[in-house]
Amino acid sequence: MKRPAKNHKARKANSGPNRGLSKVRIIGGQWRRRMLPVHDAEGLRPTGDRIRETLFNWLTAEIHGRRCLDLFAGTGALGLEALSRGAEFVQFIEKHQQAAHQLKDNLLNLKAPNASWQLHHGDTLQWLEQTKEKGFDLVFLDPPFAADLWQQTLDALINKQLLANEALIYVESPNETKIQAPSGFSIHKQLKAGSVDVQLYRFNNT
After folding, report:
1. What are the sequence ranges of the domains in the chain?
2. Which pLDDT tens digit goes with each residue over 11-51?
3. Residue burial 58-84, b: 16+ Cβ < 10 Å; e: rest
């Protein structure tokens, strides 16, 4: 979730103790309408409200009690929304130090149960290579657009066998990006929002 914001901007906080921060709004669930500060680094922004609302409408029957993986978490908007709506557990991965610290502060301020989340400050691909975790039901994949990490990340999810059968994988990318879906992936839902493409894949390993 790291690229210049165009149509889906976070609300700016221009004065007071949160100067230099933006705001992200949780749309639904137990923390509905909570506004959270997020680090205002260049190119770092949450997935916009319209896309998030559409995505979590798609996931209404799929989110409760699920184990989620928020890769390239950035502001954590997707993982936080999942926790708010009843996900059992979210593993956040974020390399940007200040963004990771702000995300941790938000989780603590929301009083999210310790057992419901973990936050790894580090490189996503390295984490995928080293982790022993398995059985994620829902993965959010929205990497820095300029880094072109979609294919490497999807391939790593398969090679490391991190996905539960029937897992859902959310992918956000520019219109021009060509992604080769790994074996076992099929399109479950899709959306075009301006210059951004959204795909929700279903994984079946049988």
Report:
1. 11-203
2. 433 334 444 568 899 999 999 999 999 877 665 656 788 99
3. bbeebbeebbbbbbbbbbbbbbbbbbb
Place of tokens 């400050």: 121
Confidence (pTM): 0.88
CATH topology (fold) of 11-203: Rossmann fold (3.40.50)
User: What is the four-CA torsion angle of 188, 189, 195, 196, rounded to 10 degrees?
Assistant: -60
Could you report the per-residue pLDDT of 157-183, keeping only the tens digit for each? 999 999 999 999 999 999 999 999 999
